[in-house]
Amino acid sequence: MIIDPATKDPFDVYRLLSGAILPRPIAFVSTLSAQGVRNLAPFSFFTVISANPPVICFCPMIRGGERPKKDTLMNIEATREFVVNIVSEDFAEKMNLCSGEYPPDVDEFELSGLTPVPSDLVKPARVKESRVNMECKLHQIVHVSPNVLGGSLVMGEVVRFHVQDSMINQICEIDADQLNAIGRMAGPVYVRTKDRFEMVRPA
Questions:
Q1: Which residues of the chain have pLDDT under 50?
Q2: CATH number for the domain harbouring residue 115
Q3: Which of 66, 111, 153, 186 could form a disulfide with 19 if both were Cys (CB 3.0 to 4.6 A apart)?
């Protein structure tokens, strides 16, 4: 089948993209509004850009309605700081609670029962239950499209890593079994990261 995205409804295009590009890691992003309200939301358009300096990115999408921009994006535009918390399976349900559409004065830490802990270099709190937290200073935002299901590319430089002591070795390798991260498939389907295999790169 050949599909011309220009002829398709944007929601069909979204389903094509989210069904083909997978599994996707989850950026569980904590921010603080200009008014001091904590926000916590998951994003599955998320990856690494650079290791020197360490820069990661995620992409909040434009939604319909009276508040098209997500609170996370507005908070980062206002404060230029955020934390990316990696999601492990044991608190996946609490993460999912934070994926709803709530008014900007709702604190998702309180709503989900997750525990906020102070960060070292940025104001947004980290998620205590997360085994890896990355404190970020905003590097750049690229607004790709203002349309519904359009979005922005948010790039942040990691200025501090927090990793659970038991799951990292002296050369900074993380034990994937202890991290027990989850990923996103299409729709409400998620995936575990336990079924793995190895391939050595050619010399």
A1: none
A2: 2.30.110.10
A3: 186
Residues 6+ positions from 6 with CB-CB distance below 8 Å: none
Report d(CA 186, CA 82) in Å as an integer. 26
Domain ranges, residue 136? 5-190
Residue 67, pLDDT score: 86
* Inside any domain, residue 53: yes
Q: Is 0.90 topped by the overall pTM?
A: yes
Phi, psi angle pair for 67, to nearest 5°: -125, 75
* Sequence-ordered list of residues with C-beta below 8 angstroms from that of 22, at least 6 positions apart, any chain: 183, 184, 185, 186, 191
Residue 14's φ and ψ, nearest 5 degrees, are -60, -45
| Amino acid letter for position 95 | M
- Provide the pLDDT for residue 22: 95
Residue 145 lies in a domain: yes
Structural domains of the chain, count:
1
Answer yes or no: is 202 within a domain. no
pLDDT tens figures, 145-178: 999 999 999 999 999 999 999 999 999 999 999 9
Question: What is the per-residue pLDDT for 16?
Answer: 96
For residue 179, what are the CA distances in angstroms to 59, 85, 128, 203?
Answer: 23, 12, 14, 30
Nearest CA among 187, 11, 34, 180 for reference residue 99: 187
> Is 177 part of a structural domain of the chain?
yes
26: left (phi over 0), alpha (psi -120 to 50) or beta: beta
AA identity, residue 118: P
